[in-house]
Amino acid sequence: MWKYKKGLYYESELTKYGAKNFSTTTFLGDMKNEKNRKNLLEKYFGSDAIICGEQVHNDNIKIVTGKYFGKVLPQTDGLITREKGVILAVFTADCLPVFIFDKIKKIIGLVHAGRVGLSKHIVSKAIDMFVKNFGSNSADIYAAIGPHICKQCYGIDLDALAEEQLKKAGVSNISNSKLCTYTGDFFSYRRNRTKKRMISAVMML
Ligand SMILES: [Zn+2]
Q1: What is the CA(155)–ligand 1 centre distance, in A?
Q2: pLDDT tier, 111 (very low <50, low <70, confident <90, very high otherwise)
Q3: For the whole model, what pTM was predicted?
Q4: Mean pLDDT for the stretch of residues 50-66
Q5: CA of 178 to the centre of ligand 1 (A)
Q6: Which CATH fold topology does 2-204 show?
């Protein structure tokens, strides 16, 4: 279940199973701003050494470890790790942040999925990587979809596409925030072509 606390949303089931996570709102400011981002990350994770991708609307997903701390990985839209203490992050303003968690094997993933990435099946690919690289059973996987633009505001049902890819891959535990970035307290690229971004981040404890 998605819950709100002090300027951010978090998925409480993920947190309960040891994957501390959140997606921010406008109340915490632009997360492309280093000072804003550093303050938040240090408060929540005790470190601002996030690993993120360049986010080029492709379907490349990388498996990462602590050696990538503080790095922006080129040509990457999705990240997966089995290491505790590694912070994965994506920046969004309408696209979907999709958290993927194998709560038995303790593997976490975070994907930036927009219209183009979804058309390249980035969510399906992420689940495939969990299964092929870590032996995950899709029945043990829990997926959470953070704030994103809704069908009424965008004309395309992005979260339905993501859910379809998850279900086809055998993932039925899906927690969709159904929070719309266009109408809520979020940065929305479609609404005003803003360069400001929210951050979604996750770390296994
Ligand atoms: Zn909407």
Answers
A1: 10
A2: very high
A3: 0.97
A4: 97
A5: 9
A6: CNF1/YfiH-like putative cysteine hydrolases (3.60.140)
